[in-house]
Amino acid sequence: xxxxxxxxxxxxxxxxxxxxxxxxxxxxxxxxxxxxxxxxxxxxxxxxxxxxxxxxxxxxxxxxxxxxxxxxxxxxxxxxxxxxxxxxxxxxxxxxxxxxxxxxxxxxxxxxxxxxxxxxxxxxxxxxxxxxxxxxxxxxxxxxxxxxxxxxxxxxxxxxxxxxxxxxxxxxxxxxxxxxxxxxxxxxxxxxxxxxxxxxxxxxxxxxxxxxxxxxxxxxxxxxxxxxxxxxxxxxxxxxxxxxxxxxxxxxxxxxxxxxxxxxxxxxxxxxxxxxxxxxxxxxxxxxxxxxxxxxxxxxxxxxxxxxxxxxxxxxxxxxxxxxxxxxxxxxxxxxxxxxxxxxxxxxxxxxxxxxxxxxxxxxxxxxxxxxxxxxxxxxxxxxxxxxxxxxxxxxxxxxxxxxxxxxxxxxxxxxxxxxxxxxxxxxxxxxxxxxxxxxxxxxxxxxxxxxxxxxxx
Length: 458
Description:
By secondary structure, the protein is mostly helical. The chain has helices at residues 18-27, 32-35, 38-45, 49-73, 81-88, 90-119, 129-145, 147-177, 202-215, 233-242, 244-262, 274-281, 287-318, 324-329, 339-358, 361-393, 408-424, 428-457, and strands at residues 181-182, 185-186. Strands 1-2 form a two-stranded antiparallel ribbon. The two termini are 42 Å apart.
């Protein structure tokens, strides 16, 4: 079957090939959180950060198994928000859908702004908004062609990120095997325990690191947005999801493991990329330029994913609705992409970038923090939806790709997300973001309640 059949003839093209979805899934777990933000995590937890990534990776894998089972239960849905609406109610679906759309708009805003800063590494006098604007226009044009163009772009973005990590791991293996001398000693496995032990800041440092580690996995659920546009989703989606543990171990745990073997964790700066620090201290003068190119790619990849996600989500939220705006956004182009929804999302992202220049830095940071914190709600809603789905189907063994260890696995994810919410309360800035996120969700829910009452009153 080549297309997702819709009752009124609107059909999303199944143009994403297996290699596209595989690399989209990989790209969703590798971003600037690893290349730039890992220094802060290492500084907080030391080598024990590996435990945080393994535990969080396991929870994300279980989350994706829950999402995968939902997706394969009905391949005609536009997005997983349709399942939330079906099993948790229209109001919860409304809140989850618009929250997800706003979250990705904010992520795109941050990444486009960052892309301008990365370009200034080579062109210091270039206005920051120029490269961001150019990248946004180019990605919008690619996304508007057809879904294959998006898949191909994301495929090559992911290849660049993967190549950088594999190169690091290869260099790390060589340095450890030959005990290569560094400015602060020798590359060795002993560096993992020789500087205050494996858990130098105790359990507190490890616990506090989970918040940053979790947020580095944001985007992993994006595979759930590709199901309705994937060739042979019954084969491709399970394969992409089941490969997540291998990707986490290789790309996250593997790269950080060898970083801390090559260079003692104590010497990493929380404010700089550990990748740049290691290679610069080894005498590779072009390290900063190479990593800057990789993070520029990661930023463009995140913006590409944001355009795809916001376009599909807006299409899903407005599909079949009667309003003028909804009819426009819930319409597909001749090439079977939600072009109007893509254009609207891109305009909002572009306006947000302009607003960033007049906003105080702390306001912008707060908005970004709130958007990432809201993903705890999004992921929790997916798990609750899966629980409701399984209660409905009962012991029907005909369904494929069933969640392992159900229902224990679902409850474990919810406990983990609750644990992260508690961790957010330990720091003032994350506590403010958590409170602001709850207020945002309450406002959205209230808007939906008022809208429903007005609808009934007509």
